[in-house]
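Build the 3D complex.
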Amino acid sequence: MKAFAYVNPANEKEAVAALKVDAGSTALPLAGGQDLLARMKDYITTPDRLVNIKGLDGTIAGTADGGLRIGSAVKIVDLAEHDQIAKLYPAIVHAAGDVGTPQIRHQGTVGGNINQRPRCWYFRNEEFVCFKKGGNRCFATTGENQYHAIFGNEGPSHIVHPSSLAVPFVAYGAIFRVLGPNGERNVPAADYFTMPNMGNVRKENILADDEILTHVTLPAPGNVKTGHYEVRYKQSHDWPLAMTTVVLLMNGNTIQSARVVLGAVAPVPWRSKPAEAALAGKPLSAETADAAANAAVSEAKPMSGNAYKVQIARTSVKRAILQAGNL
Ligand SMILES: Cc1cc2nc3c(=O)[nH]c(=O)nc-3n(C[C@H](O)[C@H](O)[C@H](O)COP(=O)(O)OP(=O)(O)OC[C@H]3O[C@@H](n4cnc5c(N)ncnc54)[C@H](O)[C@@H]3O)c2cc1C
Ligand code: SF4
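Done.
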């Protein structure tokens, strides 16, 4: 591992100040360290300075409008075991509880989970200098792409976003608080994540180098039914092949409007407008779930080795809706 300086800020303002470095140097926030330290050991990421942000807000508190505010230093396990989150936002408890293993959930933080880097095996190998590492090609297009994107494949990168928590956060309409040297900005979760063709292919979100994510605020859920379904090769110690959160705003047994967000299938948490349109105004039934699942995959464009993920994505949408309706 390359030698680095270590800074232990007392608060979020000091953390942001410590991220400012001279041109040509890099500084990165260090949360649970599970992703960042692994990348450093493999020489994928070689920062000159680490800024420890484990001391940032690690609390979950109610908001005036009946929602919740989650500090970025909250551990994943604390989401998975939180009574109020289970009551108001069950999909978050489900997603958090399925992350990795108990050890990973005890060490990993909300901020680290949302900002973890892609799992693409070319990205994770020092020898492959692809677009995401400043190179001029994507090795997955003609190489091994079994776990890559089936939606949003305009390129130039074809990763799937690795964060499980990001999916229900987008579905519940969360707001991310970002702090930088010029103050804070509050960004809808859906606008936080960026497609590879939206400017900087080397990043997965809108954060500037000297900004950190400090809080996730969830609005009061309202009269919604939610479902969450994940498919993995194995039940533990792995990322999903596909997952879906659905949040259905109900009027009796009729779905007034829907948010359908798929994970592990696109470079960002993927909101499926065709599925949402197929649900709006319909009764919550098995037939509706089937039609919405078909609509969700109607815009899939798999790569050479991952067409199998289309059916898995379809299943995750259908089962999430069935779960929401207790069907
Ligand atoms: C075997 C295994 C299985 C896993 N399975 C899953 C899974 O199913 N689903 C899933 O979602 N994850 C999974 N993970 C990933 C795990 O959840 C992440 O490694 C973890 O969430 C990262 O959190 P951390 O706090 O350790 O982050 P760190 O490693 O400290 O940080 C990760 C990155 O985010 C940046 N960062 C951290 N906090 C902030 C912040 N507040 N603001 C801005 N940038 C920040 C860091 O600079 C770094 O680049 C798995 C990991 C392993 C090892
Ligand atoms: S999918 Fe993205 S991370 Fe993977 S090789 Fe292609 S450009 Fe690199």
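Residues 28-36, 53, 72, 99-100, 104, 107-109, 111-113, 115-117, 162-165, 207, 212-213, 237-240 surround flavin-adenine dinucleotide (ligand 1) (CB under 6 Å).
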